[in-house]
Structure prediction request, 530 residues.
Amino acid sequence: MALRVLVSDDLSQEGLSVLRKAEGLAVDVKVGLPPADLVAIIGDYDALAVRSATKVTAQVFEAAKRLKVVGRAGVGVDNIDLAAASRRGVVVMNAPGGSAVTVAEHTLAMMFALARQIPAATASVKSGKWEKKKFASGHELSGKTLGVVGTGNIGSVVVDRAHGLKMKVLAYDPYVSAEGAARMGIELVSLEDLLRRADFVTLHVPLTDATRNLIGEKQLGLMKPGAFLVNCARGGLIDEAALAKALAAGKLGGAAFDVFATEPPAADHPLFAQPNFVCTPHLGASTEEAQAAVALAVCEQLADYLLHGNVRNAVNVPSVSRELIELLGPFLTLGERLGALVGQLAAEHMTEFRVTVAGAISQQPRRPIALAALRGLLSHAAEAGQVNDVNAPAIAAERGIQLVEERSDQARDFASLVTVTARGPKGETTATGTVFGREPRLLRLDEFEVESAAEGVLLVLRNEDVPGVIGQIGETIGTAGLNIARMALSRRTARKEALAILNLDSPAPAEVLEKLRALPPIRDVHQVQL
Ligand code: NAD
Prediction:
């Protein structure tokens, strides 16, 4: 009997014909079903293909007794209840990458629109004016410096096209290896450097804790007078009020947004009052070609999974059996936390990530622990849920990071140990931990023996080993009204260096971190979320 596929959103013909032509599949297209109708019929289907309109809720999964797979023609899976899908053992797939060229072209369109004031000139001509003088001060892109923030799927296409336009390209992306940068032909610089030197700045990063308001008043202040800023990535990356002020003050040449912190933005949004502000209503991925490409990709993936069992671009599949999860459980959490710790301390331009399991745990399959550690490492630079055990190795490979898995019989005085080491051009960062009861514990960070709970918010401080430092740290944190749950200290007397790890009840704001950095004995401060 044929496997039944329900297509409940508008998918391109190219995609549908892949499903229709596949022997062994029977396809029904029912677009715009009310939620109750979807629940009523989903029990008859083995697969569901959607875009963003269909809401695949827990209720739908409850009723979906035969369902094996849901395919999303696009990237975001906000309309699918992933936890409910996993509970029912349904694989959810998306189609990342299909719209990279489209979004990159939209970015270039924004740059041209800004440089030649096309929207304002159009409005002027249509209103019956012929203001040649007013709009005569355009700019060429050729020969200008473009600063690309984030060089993943989309950023790398922007880089490629910008080279064709004879622009000089600078990029800021701490997770790209030197080799990856060389392949793209870009100069990697710090964000500050990029902002100071670029004539055009364009953002292509995910929205994470690290990138929210990445461009605020201070960063806008670093930009060249008359420079242009483009955001076709995510609303919330730029402080919109600060940008409106900078534009009003004539500091920048202009700015263009495809995305806003709140969508749709309010009619009296302060940016709308600025004549050199250009915008589109989140159209970055909306071309016929991109829609066709993502529909085609997801339909091919669905057919491949249903007919041959091949899983591609799954966003929720556990790669470990339930029995193994029970056995390894706390060590998977430990691996993930150690990966996340090292990722936030020293992931810059990393080339190798080594995961070593030692002692009793090394007798078990080590791959799941290595994958959990890699997922932890990569997750803080991605949006929640985007990195999983299935796609983590491919993301690492794209970024030029080699995953090395090792085992050892030697676990010092412990039953089992997990060690993760990140290697990059600036050296190595390494963390070792174990499980006490079921709790993941950090035992060593680089050359420091330090016992600390590997959970929640951690402040990692390195300081000169002189008297009074702990008092100064405690006072700075206490004055800010932050609660220290635990504190672990370690020192290397020979090097007069000490390490303090503080578990905080809540994250310290940026100004508190700055105050700590300003204390004379402090060498560096990192805040880490595990
Ligand atoms: P990607 O994951 O392929 O690339 C993101 C890049 O950002 C990676 O190279 C990563 O290393 C880098 N990065 C992560 N954190 C960073 C940080 N703190 N500083 C600097 N770089 C950092 O993603 P993508 O597919 O290229 O998408 C880029 C953005 O475009 C995302 O925000 C995505 O949501 C958005 N997007 C927008 C539209 C639209 O309609 N306008 C469509 C698709 C994607």
User: Anything to note?
Assistant: The domain at 318-455 is CATH 3.30.1330.90 (60s Ribosomal Protein L30; Chain: A;). The mean pLDDT is 92.
